[in-house]
Amino acid sequence: MSEVEGASDQLSEVSLAEKQKPAKENVENSPGDIPEYLCVTIGATVPTGFEQTAADEVREKLGSQSRISKDRGKIYFDISVESLSKVHGLRSVDNLFVVVQEFRDYRFKETKEDVLKDFEDLAGKLPWSDPLKVWKINTNFKKKKTKRKKLTQQNTVNKEMLDDGQGDMGAEKQITNYTMEDVLETIENQDGTFAETPILAYSKKVSELPSAIEKEKGVNENPKEEPESQVLKFRVTCNRAGENHSFTSNEAARDFGGAVQDYFKWKADMTNFDVEVLLNVHNNEIVVGIALTEESLHRRNITHFGPTTLRSTLAYGMLRLCSPQPTDIIVDPMCGTGAIPIEGAAEWPNCYHIAGDNNPLAVKRAANNILSLLTKSQVKESKAFWGLPIDAIQWDICNLPLRTGSVDIIVTDMPFGKRIGSKKRNWNLYPSCLQEMSRVCRPGTGRAVLLTQDRKCFAKALSRMGHVWRKVHTVWVNIGGLHAAVYLLKRTGQVFIEPSELEHEKETS
Description:
With 509 residues, the chain is α/β, with parallel strands linked by helices. The protein has helices at 3-11, 51-62, 84-87, 112-123, 129-138, 147-175, 180-188, 193-196, 199-207, 209-220, 249-264, 312-321, 339-347, 360-381, 423-440, 455-464, 499-508, and strands at 39-45, 66-68, 74-80, 95-103, 233-241, 267-268, 275-282, 285-291, 329-332, 352-357, 390-394, 409-413, 447-452, 469-479, 482-491. The strands form two sheets. An eight-stranded mixed β-sheet has the order 2-3-1-4-8-7-5-6. The longest helix is centred in the N-terminal third of the chain and has 29 residues, at 147-175. It is elongated and about 75 Å long. Residues 1-33 and 146-228 have low confidence and may be disordered.
C-alpha cells in the first residue's frame, strides 16, 4: 500500500471535534470521488506588500473572497476541493496550506509550562479529518521537491554514457525511460547545451520525445510492490511572531509535535517527511494547518539562478501593478535571470516582452530560462511551436537600442547596491536609467514599475525627473530581510528632449 493510501487508514482513526461534519468514506485519488460537501479554508503565503494583489487574483480565478491576515504575507480563502488544482495555478502565492483550525483570540496561560501543556492537549481536539482528506487529494497536484536532485544524478550517468562513446543513441535510450516531466527536468540540467543549440533546432528535437516516451512507458514501468502497511512520517513547523510569548518556536513545535505523534501514531522525521503540520502563532492568533506544497511555487519558471534571482511571485505582482493590455510592449532593461519577462509571457502572452541586461552571463541565464519555458510548453502540448513572445538582448541600460516612445511598460528590479553594483554607483546610474526609460516609454500612456532597496538614491533621482515621471503608488516589500519599495510611475505627456538639446536651449535663452 502506498503512503497516500495509508493516509486513508489514518483518517478512520480520527475522532471529529464538535461542529465538524459527519465522517464519510475514505477519499480516493480520483478528483471525481471528492465529497460534494467538502469545503475547506486554504492559507497562502504571498510576497509582503502584495497581499491585496493575491486576494484580487483569487477572486478573479477562483471566485472566492480572501481575508488578509494581520500577520503580513498571508491570505485565507474558502474553496470547494474541486478547485484545488486551480489553487496550485495561482501566480501570486508562494506556499499553500489547508487550515485545520484557527484561533483569532487565543488566551495564553501565564507560565510557559501551562502554555505548552495546552498545546499538547490541543492536538487531540482539532478537526483533522477534512484537512487530511485534502492533503491526500493534493498529492495529485503538488510538485515534488526531491525530483530535481534525483534527476541531476541521472543526468551525470547519461553524460558519462555519452563520454564512453554511446553517442546520441545511448542518451535517447536513457531519456525514453522517463515521463514527460522527467525529460523536461533532464533537459534543464544539461548546462551549456542551451547556449550552443539554436532554439528552433532544439525545439524540433524536444517535440519528438513525448511520443517515444509514451511508447516505452508501459513496457519499462515495473513498480515494486509497497509493503502492506506503512506509517506516515511527519514534522511540525512552528512560525512565531510577537514579543509577549513565554515560549520559543522550537518548544512549541516539540511539545505540539509530540502530542500529534501520540495521537496519530505517526513517525517523526524532520527531513524526509510525508506530512508537514504547521503551527503559526502571531501575537494572540494561532492557525494550525497542513502544508500542501513541498517547494515554494515561486520557483516554477526558473531553472538557472543568479546571485539575485527575483521571485516569480513578486515579478507577477509587479507586472500586475501596471495592468498590461493586449499588444503592449513590455521591457525589463535589467532582467537578470529573466523572471519578470518569463512571468509576463506566461500570464500575458498577448503582450510582447523584451529582456535585456548589460551582463552577458545574466543574458545567458535569461535565455536558458526562456528556452526551458518553451520546452515545458512543448512537452505539455506534445507538439512543436515557433516560440514565445520574448526576446533576450545584451545592451547598455543607459543607451537602449529602442526607438523613442516605442515601449508601453517598463518593469525591472534595479540594483540594490549590495550583491550587485554599489550604493556609490547608484547615484549616477539611477538618474541615467530614469532618463533613458523616459525616452523609450510612450508619453502620456507609458508606465514603469521599479523595485529598489536604495530608496534614498531613487527618491533623489526621481525628483530630478519630475517633468517626465509621476509617482502613482508605492508598495513596501520585504526582500530577503531587506526593506525595499516597488514604485509605480506614470509617464507624463512631456515629449522627450535630448539633454544636449536642452542645454543648448538654456544657453541660447
